[in-house]
Amino acid sequence: MGYYFQDENVRVSLCDNQHWLPVVVLLGLVSCSVPSTLKSELLQTLAAFAKSPEIAASLWQSIEVSQVSVNSACYQHERAFRLKELTPLG
């Protein structure tokens, strides 16, 4: 995680900026079909934002509203997709 996420004032300023809306953007990307490595980085970034108590409560509410679910089904789906791409056409 970047240095800037260690600073609470920076985290709060980013989240309060109506032009950037990082939590909304990151949650939107997490809900997309993206590689698990990217999804992991997105979730770690959201976790860094959640270190600020005033962000954590609204972030949790946003997660519940968006119904983002990160579970083994996502991993299994991506793994099956990768295996399908690696299988030679016969």
Describe the structure.
- The chain contains five helices and no strands.
- It has helices at 8-16, 22-30, 36-49, 53-66, 72-86.
- Helix 2 (22-30) runs antiparallel to helix 3 (36-49) and helix 2 packs parallel to helix 4 (53-66).
- The chain starts with 7 loop residues before the first helix and ends with a helix.
- The mean pLDDT is 78.
Short characterization:
The chain is mainly alpha-helical. The chain has helices at residues 8-16, 22-30, 36-49, 53-66, 72-86. It is globular.
Question: If helices are DSSP runs of H or I spanning 4 or more residues, what is the number of helices?
Answer: 5
Proportion of helical residues: 55-70%
Radius of gyration: 16 Å
Share of β-strand residues: under 5%
Number of self-contained structural domains: 1
Task: Measure the end-to-end span.
Answer: 44 Å
Uncertain segments are none
Defining key terms:
5 helices; globular; 90 residues; mainly alpha
Topology:
Elements: H1 8-16, H2 22-30, H3 36-49, H4 53-66, H5 72-86
